Amino acid sequence: MLENLTDRLSRVVKTMRGQARLTESNTAEMLREIRLALLEADVALPVVKSLLEQIKFKALGEDVVGSLSPGQALVGVVQRELAQVMRGDAAQSGELNLATQPPAVILMAGLQGAGKTTSVGKLAKFLQEKKKKKVLTVSCDVYRPAAIEQLEMVTKQVGAEFFPSNVNQKPNEIAAAALDWARRHYFDVLLVDTAGRLGIDTALMEEIQALHASLHPIETLFVVDAMLGQDAVNTAKAFHEALPLTGVILTKLDGDSRGGAALSVRQITGVPLKFIGVAEKMDGLEAFDAERMASRILG
Ligand code: GDP
Questions:
Q1: Where is the SRP54-type proteins GTP-binding domain (predicted)?
Q2: Residue with CA closest to ligand 1 atom 19
């Protein structure tokens, strides 16, 4: 990964060549550059500050005689630290908890445009093909008929079953009817798509809290757009305060965002990152990998 570093980091790695230890003085300039690199990757400022404290503490006195230059050693420390912050329980990455009496309910939360509906399609495909589960999807978005149609389309595309709903119903009624249907027809998993607004909104939060209370989902997944950058933190905070989130899906990593949101969201909420979205198409879902994300943030 060292060859993919940002220009600013590789420059400093070079200037530190020939020094045998990381000291206060030779580390200071590098830490300044790392701070800028993290900010450029859209890691939130408070998260950058706390990371730099930990990195400084771990780096000082690190013996780097021999194999690497101090600059490279420091970048190694930084990369390990970033990966450690983002690494949840390894068993959670790329997995969903389905250990309950079927149907296992999975509730999707996030702002409009985050990628919830697309992620429902991707998860339905993953659950059917990789886990051999019988999957039902339902939309509780009673504000946008197009959202319901979009869910129907992606569900059919991946060959799962779609439970119809319409904008004249109440979200809780839709959810109860879908759950009842899923039970009576022996579905293993019910994926519940929800409405999103363009910003945080009390009515939206109350609605999804009510859905959570009535559905008792085993997974409540927060879907967040990697391109949101710094704003991802406030959104994550608001959803985390409103709901007991169990996992995060970070979407649109096929764009040119460096993925700093992964670090911020994990550090602020402590909720494990489970999947990343890497394409619009239904196979564009991958298990979250902390090491690869750490390289991407620095590179
Ligand atoms: P929702 O409002 O949260 O349900 O968001 P949608 O699922 O409708 O997604 C909003 C837009 O983002 C759509 O145009 C999707 O095709 C696109 N999208 C979602 N996930 C990804 C992803 O991982 N990569 C890319 N490139 N586009 C995505």
A1: 103-299
A2: 115
